């Protein structure tokens, strides 16, 4: 395929295709796909939950995602492998993924995001902006996406055959183009797809961890007013803060064990600019501390009584879309202190 740019004088400037192995290494393509997963599938978006995911036979899945229905999506770059190697490896990786349950998928996205409190169901709902009548059944089916600069006729034929047998395989060709004046274009075309025991351990490479300076700069003034105060409280009271790829969790140290109190996220995250409680999250008071269930419920109702929170799975979220009053901010700060006090009082499980 040849691409041309039309200049102001009507003249054409040709964009020259560049191979991945030249100016653009495969890591660049993998980075781009990770940040821009929309449009890879023929029928919707993908939520990326893992990168460089290790399998039980020592393989490495380039990218692992979920579609809107909760089906797992194995995304593999073709590289220089033969058609047989490409298909065989994609099927091997998918056979591994097929055995993962929802808890293991949640473990993968927590490792990938460096956020131990992510609730996969809520995160998936927020990403797809879903108002689902029923809970999503994760990994009920699996999908394969093979991506390369050239998808050979052999791979297309095998992919078409697999699709006829109910295995959903999508093949996507990508091309990098560059003009003489340095302007770059990326082309994308779907060339196929428009028509064991449970693994004991799963893991994913992690996105870079955000810093406090970058996090605060990403907030609007309404977000800084609240989340900045939370971080200030953490410094004053020596409360541990765990940073993830987008946001943070505020914790209390109990005999060397950190118990999460709340999370904060910026506007550009899947969860938007929010303050979220961690009473029932895996790292929160309900899971790691000995605070009685009735006390947890009292803390839950205290947060709801502020009028600032809405439901977020079993926990609550405060979507920061306006300027909070000083009284409202103080009520949230006081709530955090109440949770910390309860955890100190009852200790660990």
Word description of this protein:
By secondary structure, the chain is an alpha+beta fold. The chain folds into 2 domains: 3-192, Trna Endonuclease, Chain: A, domain 1 (3-Layer(aba) Sandwich); 212-346. The chain is built from 10 helices and 14 strands. It has helices at residues 26-35, 83-97, 102-113, 120-127, 153-164, 212-218, 221-236, 285-288, 293-305, 326-346, and strands spanning 3-6, 12-18, 47-54, 60-66, 72-77, 142-148, 168-178, 184-192, 241-243, 248-254, 257-265, 274-277, 310-312, 315-319. The strands form 2 sheets. Strands 1, 2, 3, 4, 5, 6, 7 and 8 form an 8-stranded mixed β-sheet that branches. A hairpin with a 4-residue loop joins strand 9 (241-243) and strand 10. Helix 2 (83-97) packs parallel to helix 5 (153-164). The longest helix is centred in the last third of the chain and has 21 residues, at 326-346. It is globular, with a radius of gyration of 23 Å. The N and C termini lie far apart (63 Å). The model has no long low-confidence stretch (mean pLDDT 87).
């Amino acid at each position: 395929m040849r691409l041309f740019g039309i200049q102001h004088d009507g003249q054409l400037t040709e964009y020259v295709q560049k191979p991945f192995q030249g100016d653009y290494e495969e890591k660049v393509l993998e980075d781009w796909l990770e940040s821009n997963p929309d449009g890879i599938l023929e029928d919707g978006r993908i939520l990326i939950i893992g990168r460089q995911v290790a399998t039980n036979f020592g393989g490495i899945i380039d990218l692992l995602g979920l579609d809107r229905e909760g089906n797992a999506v194995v995304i593999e770059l073709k590289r220089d492998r033969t058609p047989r190697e490409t298909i065989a490896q994609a099927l091997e990786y998918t056979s591994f993924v097929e055995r993962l349950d929802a808890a293991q998928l949640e473990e993968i996205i927590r490792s990938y995001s460096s956020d131990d409190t992510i609730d996969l169901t809520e995160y998936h709902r927020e990403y797809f902006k879903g108002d689902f009548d029923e809970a999503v059944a994760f990994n009920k089916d699996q999908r394969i996406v093979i991506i390369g600069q050239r998808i050979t006729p052999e791979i297309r034929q095998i992919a078409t055959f697999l699709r006829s047998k109910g295995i959903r395989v999508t093949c996507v060709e990508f091309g990098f183009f560059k003009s003489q004046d340095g302007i770059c274009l990326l082309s994308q075309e779907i060339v196929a797809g428009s028509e064991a025991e449970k693994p004991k351990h799963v893991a994913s490479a992690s996105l870079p961890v955000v810093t406090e300076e970058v996090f605060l700069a990403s907030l609007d003034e309404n977000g800084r007013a609240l989340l900045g105060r939370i971080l200030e409280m953490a410094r004053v009271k020596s409360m541990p803060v765990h940073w993830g790829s987008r946001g943070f969790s505020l914790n209390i140290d109990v005999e060397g064990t950190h118990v999460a109190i709340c999370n904060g996220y910026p506007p550009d995250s899947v969860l938007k600019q929010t303050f979220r409680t961690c009473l029932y999250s895996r790292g929160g008071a309900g899971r790691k501390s000995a605070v009685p269930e009735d006390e947890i419920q009292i803390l839950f109702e205290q947060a709801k009584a502020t009028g600032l929170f809405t439901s977020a799975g079993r926990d609550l979220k405060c979507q920061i879309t306006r300027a909070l009053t000083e009284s409202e901010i103080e009520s949230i700060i006081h709530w955090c202190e109440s949770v910390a006090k309860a955890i100190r009082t009852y200790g660990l499980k």
